[in-house]
């Protein structure tokens, strides 16, 4: 039984699709099929049920997969421990995030301080918390930076950023230059929002309900960058968390009543070995986001980046 067989089996078992597994592993499908067949021959039992060119993990496969996951996870933790003994120069960090804009600047700062550390970053859909959990539990991600709590047993989370929610307005808007408003003052404005079902949409709906307003939603988007671009283009206003980094050519107004902050969390698997590089990056993010905003604008309002 070879390590490569176990790695291939794990991927095929997760996808239950030989073609997709071959594409992900970047191997030819016939070679992958032969590897799985040799593994089944070594074990003396089939691991998949095959019907009409479809494969499904059977009872033998499910039992074996649990042991394979444990074994491969232990080997990966051993690799990380050895890398730690060699020092940060061999460190690597596997990061998953559903809000990449929010962490890109901090990644640049950390890389400037530790150029020897390698990153592998996976961008996850904002609504896919299940995928974030899977990446942590499988060991494919060391850390997850997320705008919504995962709230799962065995996963630890800390809030590294508590961003105030502001109202982004286009250039020339009647609120441009205003220090602060009540959210009720924006009733009747055209709003740019996330699509229905998006986790930020639900939070924004609850916020507006608390303020006693019904929004006129004129655009629905999936990505924070699209929301920011539509505000800048003058199509409407939007609720966005403030940022510490670069200024942008549109105004953001502080909302005095009701006020609201959105927490951004860093999560990791509690019982899985966390490499020295990952621990350093975790501590760095806590310190980085604890710093006061680097803007020259008055504290009541600022021209900040509207992206999540």
How would you summarize the topology of this molecule?
Blueprint (H helix, E strand, L loop, with lengths): L2 H13 L2 H8 L3 H15 L4 E4 L2 E4 L1 H28 L5 E6 L2 H14 L4 E6 L5 H10 L4 E4 L8 E15 L10 E3 L7 E5 L4 H13 L4 E6 L2 H9 L5 E4 L5 E11 L3 E9 L6 H15 L10 E4 L4
Parallel strand pairs: 3-4, 3-5, 7-11, 8-9
Antiparallel strand pairs: 1-2, 5-12, 6-10, 6-11, 6-12, 11-13
Helix pairs in contact: 1-2, 1-3, 1-4
Distance between the termini: 47 Å
CATH level-1 class of the largest domain: Alpha Beta
Series of H and E elements? HHHEEHEHEHEEEEHEHEEEHE
Give the class from helix and strand content and strand pairing.
Answer: alpha/beta
Radius of gyration: 24 Å
Based on the coordinates given, report the CATH architecture of the largest domain: 3-Layer(aba) Sandwich
Beta fraction of the residues? 25-35%
Instruction: Report the total helices.
Output: 9
Assembly type of the shown chains? single chain
CATH homologous superfamily designation of the largest domain: Periplasmic binding protein-like II
Shape: elongated
Number of strands: 13
Helix content: 40-55%
Unreliable spans = 293-308
And the CATH topology of the largest domain?
A: D-Maltodextrin-Binding Protein, domain 2
């Amino acid at each position: 039984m070879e390590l490569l067989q176990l790695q291939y089996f794990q991927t095929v078992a997760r996808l239950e699709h030989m073609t997709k597994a071959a594409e992900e592993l970047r191997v030819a499908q016939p070679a992958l099929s032969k590897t799985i067949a040799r593994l089944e021959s070594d074990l003396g039992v089939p691991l998949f049920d095959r019907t009409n060119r479809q494969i499904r993990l059977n009872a033998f496969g499910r039992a074996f997969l649990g042991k394979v996951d444990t074994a491969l996870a232990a080997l990966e933790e051993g690799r990380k421990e050895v890398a730690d003994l060699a020092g940060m120069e061999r460190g690597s960090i596997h990061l998953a995030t559903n809000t990449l804009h929010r962490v890109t600047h901090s990644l640049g700062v950390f890389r400037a301080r530790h150029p020897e550390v390698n990153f592998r970053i996976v961008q996850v859909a904002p609504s896919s918390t299940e995928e974030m959990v899977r990446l942590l539990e499988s060991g494919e991600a060391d850390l997850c930076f997320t705008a919504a709590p995962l709230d799962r047993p065995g996963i630890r989370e800390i809030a590294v950023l508590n961003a105030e929610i502001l109202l982004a307005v286009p250039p020339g808007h009647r609120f441009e230059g205003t220090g602060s408003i009540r959210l009720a003052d924006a009733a009747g404005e055209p709003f740019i929002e996330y699509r229905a079902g998006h986790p930020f949409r639900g939070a924004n709906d609850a916020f507006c309900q608390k303020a006693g307003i019904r929004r006129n939603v004129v655009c629905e988007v999936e990505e924070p960058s699209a929301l920011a671009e539509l505000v800048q283009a003058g199509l409407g206003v939007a609720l966005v968390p403030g940022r510490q980094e670069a200024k942008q050519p549109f105004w953001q107004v502080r909302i005095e009543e009701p006020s609201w902050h959105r927490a951004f969390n860093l999560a990791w698997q509690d019982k899985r070995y966390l490499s020295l590089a990952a621990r350093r990056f975790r501590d760095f993010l806590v310190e980085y986001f604890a710093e006061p905003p680097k803007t020259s604008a008055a504290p009541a309002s600022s021209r900040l980046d509207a992206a999540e």
